[in-house]
Design brief:
The chain is an alpha+beta fold and 404 residues long. The protein has 13 helices and 10 strands. The chain folds into 2 domains: 2-51 and 270-402, no CATH class; 80-257, no CATH class. A hairpin with a 2-residue loop joins β6 (174-177) and β7 (180-188). The longest helix has 44 residues, at 264-307.
Length: 404
């Protein structure tokens, strides 16, 4: 009886093609929208996570200035409480630290021949390469000797290289940063854009002491990047950094810190939680279409029951029981949900690829939203088909046979 009911349901759908397609349209749009919206949300989540991870693994960022001043966060670089000696003390005294890289930064105009470009110039130490997960594509990175002797050498990002030197190998070429001549000793491998849309390849790295003394005329550092040896000791290292700096800066009791320590692991967790909420919101909004599709199924099934009242009377007169009639119409409603869900999956997956190709947004398609949305489409067909099916099964056979 089951397969006979499936055959009857398919015949009923084929005999009313346009009506069946319009009924399925709500399910198709609903399933497709859920898959597409969730794939966009998952893409945003993955992009944010990879962007934060690209800054460095097990990374702790120390910046000058208290977390708040009269309720307002101080602007970056406005406080001068961190020094190179603070960074050296961290590397020397705190267990569990893999590397420490102090840095300063400023925008400068770069000139090479008749080409010019404005970029961010970072003064730092050799440890910066490992701390920030950078790699050198050609040439070499700055060395401790460069830092000690304040050498005028620079390592440039791929964006700077393409804008200043085009197809020429930049290694060994001269570039003027501000008014000071530098020799390019290396080019960094490309890292692409950050989650905020910033070009991570638009950068120039020079020795810390060169930037401090020859370029900016300062003795403090603006950021200290600390890499923990592994994920298990990140919190211990963060506590150690806080205690050490409070001691070195003479901060006692309830006095506010004159620095801020941020753990990127907690930043990553917050970002994932936020993007997860966005994904759920997008999926929930799209799922409303599934409910609309379910109402469409109920509507068309009620019409079908009315149209086939005489048929139901004949079937009952020939011995069909309550369960037989109920199953026939339930299966018809479920078949609509199954077919609509299958087409909706194709539409959703195809839509995700189209969005990724034309809008340039990263989309991630996973099995879970596909399975959940398909399950909902089948469940909605079953739920909204139950009332019309029960109504058909409860028809009095005598009244049904008299129906015109």
């Amino acid at each position: 009886m089951f397969w006979e009911s499936v055959k009857i349901a398919l015949d009923a759908l084929v005999s009313n093609k346009l009506r069946s397609i319009l009924t399925m349209l709500g399910i198709i749009i609903g399933v497709g929208a859920v898959i597409a919206m969730v794939s966009i949300g998952m893409g945003v989540r993955e992009k944010v996570s990879s962007s934060i991870a690209s800054l460095g693994s097990n990374l702790i960022i120390v910046t000058p200035g208290a977390a708040s001043s009269s309720g307002v966060r101080q602007a970056a670089g406005t406080s001068t409480t961190l020094t190179l000696k603070d960074a050296q003390a961290m590397a020397r005294e705190i267990p569990g630290i893999g590397a420490v890289a102090p840095s300063v930064g400023k925008q400068y105009q770069l000139v090479a021949g008749n080409m010019n470009w404005t970029s961010s110039v970072q003064g730092t130490t050799p440890e910066y390469l490992d701390v920030r997960n950078l790699s050198v594509e050609s040439g070499s990175f700055i060395t401790n000797e460069d830092v000690e002797t304040r050498n005028r050498v620079a390592v440039i990002g791929s964006t700077v290289a393409s804008n200043l030197f085009d197809n020429i190998n930049p290694v060994g070429q001269s570039v003027r940063i501000g008014n000071a001549p530098f020799t390019v000793i290396g080019v960094l491998a490309s890292k692409g854009q950050s989650a905020g849309g910033q070009d991570q390849d638009d950068t120039v790295i020079i020795p810390l002491t060169t930037a401090q003394e020859r370029m900016m005329g300062i003795t403090y550092v603006q950021t200290i990047s600390v890499q923990a040896a592994n994920a298990e000791v990140v919190n211990d290292v963060q506590d150690g950094v806080t205690s050490l700096l409070r001691s070195r800066h003479g901060i006692t009791g309830d006095k506010a810190d004159d620095f801020t320590v941020r753990n990127l692991a907690s930043v990553m967790a917050t970002a994932q939680e936020t993007t997860g909420t966005i994904t759920m919101l997008l999926g929930s909004i799209a799922a409303i279409s599934l409910l609309v599709g379910g109402i469409g199924i109920m509507n068309i099934m009620l019409v079908s029951v009315t149209e086939r009242t005489r048929e139901i009377g004949i079937r009952k007169a020939l011995g069909a029981r309550y369960a037989n009639i109920l199953m026939q119409f339930l299966i018809e409603a479920v078949v609509i949900g199954v077919i609509g869900g299958a087409i909706g999956i194709a539409v959703g997956v195809g839509g995700s690829y189209v969005i990724s190709s034309f809008a340039g947004w990263k989309t991630v398609i996973t099995p879970m939203p596909i399975l959940v949305s398909f399950g909902f489409s089948v469940g909605i067909g079953l739920f909204f088909g139950l009332y019309p099916a029960r109504k058909a099964a409860l028809l009095n056979p005598i009244d049904a046979l008299r129906y015109e």
